[in-house]
Automatic annotation (TrEMBL):
Residues 2-156 form the NADPH-dependent FMN reductase-like domain. Residues 181-190 have a biased composition (Low complexity). It comes from Streptomyces physcomitrii. This is FMN reductase. The keyword Flavoprotein applies.
Amino acid sequence: MTRIVVVSGGLGSPSSTRLLGDRLAEAVRRAAGTGPDGAAPVEGETVELRDLAVPLAHHLLTGFPGPELGAALDKVASADGIIAVTPVFSASYSGLFKSFFDVLDPDALTGKPVLIGATGGTPRHSLVVEHALRPLFAHLRAVVAPTGVYAASQDWGADGLAERIDRAGRELALLVRESAPGTAAPGATAPERESGAESGQGFPAESVQGFQVVPFAEQLAAVRAA
């Protein structure tokens, strides 16, 4: 079973940020399809950062997480993939969102597939996904899905958002599947994988913490063909 954890930085209840995270998680489940037994191979959990605001402040001051925050950090570290969504404040991610990833173990996201998203009141902040979120997760050495999703207030119910969500969900599902230890190229045997790596074709020989690295061109071609 593949575990996807949504980290939602939304402050309201209900929250458009949580809604975007839920929609992205559902897109990943659709893209993953069903297993041989008919069950969905993806299960999801959500970490609501607004519920962790006080424990986060205590951790930043003392260096020790409480039980609730510790459990949330463990969920993120042990997940197969992450969906990270934040509201926009002052043209960037929220302080609460940044604080959570500040206290996360620096190596927790190394090689882990991450899908990024943000919500805001105006389309003018759409570049926050590329100018703030993507550099943050690149610094944490995560494998960030090519498509980031920004949803302004007027995007809900309008043309285009559903398509972006579906595309991003397919990309994360593919990254999670390909990053699983022991994943082979479709139809390829182990010797074929090894020979392909040695010849510079197919899967490269290098890996990140046991994850086989798939060339981005192959990932993108597979997503477009899906």
